[in-house]
Specification:
By secondary structure, this protein is α+β, with helices and mostly antiparallel strands. It has two domains: 82 residues, no CATH class; 105 residues, Four Helix Bundle (Hemerythrin (Met), subunit A) (Up-down Bundle), CATH 1.20.120. 41% of the residues lie in helices and 25% in strands. It is built from five helices and six strands. Strands 1-2-3-4-5-6 form a six-stranded antiparallel beta sheet, with no helix packed on it. A hairpin with a 4-residue loop joins strand 2 and strand 3. The longest helix has 43 residues. It starts with a strand and ends in a 15-residue tail after the last helix. InterPro entries: DUF4145. This is DUF4145 domain-containing protein. It comes from Paenibacillus pinisoli.
Length: 243
């Protein structure tokens, strides 16, 4: 990041509206600092977390990018001991934070999202490729993407409603792959992106989330049952009322 003055801050970023790597001007900034204490070797010591949200303006297409930067006092550069920042673009949406999605599938989908505002046809091809990779990862059988998605639906990996949208994706994917003269509107591309995101979330993330909830609920029920059982220290006391 280059700070030219107290008022002006610039940062070199890739604008995923126009796919130009350029120096953008910061037009808004917000920061938050939080401190937490951890226990190590019987001692308490603090860790400070810093989070910054910055809005940058692209000088090429006049669109904005929202960047989130995170760092903390535990993660430092081994050479100069400075805090190691982690950056993620929140807008436009070009990345997935879902840890459950395989790396190859995630990277393919992120590549498609990065060009959705520039080349709709290539984005459609990227979405189709992502779904093909997901089908292969899940052992789907079929002669084409439609039949592979249908196979996963019949196996219960995907919900039955997926069949209706799969037909649309098959048509769009084939047209994009064969280079037909077809203009993909922004609305269509956004729908394909959202649909694919939902599929990936359903296949890779939802089962783990449900499993985690089930484990927590099981532990809570066990704890409630233990607390409700009379222990050796408890006595049954009968209160009688004279009539």
């Amino acid at each position: 990041m280059i700070k030219l003055s107290q008022q002006e801050v610039y940062h070199v970023l890739i604008c995923y509206h126009c796919v130009n790597k350029t120096q953008m001007k910061q037009i808004a900034h917000y920061e938050r600092e939080a401190e937490e204490f951890i226990v190590a070797m019987g001692n308490h010591y603090p860790i400070t977390f810093y989070t910054y949200w910055d809005l940058y303006l692209c000088p090429v297409c006049d669109q904005v990018t929202l960047l989130k930067t995170s760092k903390n006092t535990e993660e430092r550069d081994p050479v100069d001991y400075t805090l190691t920042p982690s950056e993620i673009i929140l807008y436009p949406n070009v990345s997935l934070e879902d840890a459950g999605i395989p790396q190859k599938v995630r990277k393919s989908f992120e590549a498609a999202m990065r060009i959705k505002n520039v080349e709709g046809t290539l984005c459609a091809i990227g979405v189709r490729r992502t779904l093909e990779m997901m089908c292969k990862d899940k052992g789907a059988r079929g002669k084409d993407l439609f039949h592979k998605l249908k196979d996963l639906s019949e196996k219960g990996v995907l919900p039955p409603i997926i069949n209706d949208m799969a037909k649309v994706l098959r048509v769009l994917g084939n047209e994009a792959a064969h280079g037909d003269d077809r203009d993909f509107s922004e609305e269509v591309i956004e729908s394909m992106i959202r649909f694919t995101h939902v599929i990936l979330d359903y296949v890779y993330n939802l089962p783990g989330q449900l499993s985690g909830i089930q484990v927590k609920m099981g532990k809570s029920i066990e704890n409630d049952e233990v607390l409700s059982e009379p222990g050796p220290y408890k006595q049954n006391i009968t209160v009688s009322k004279d009539t």
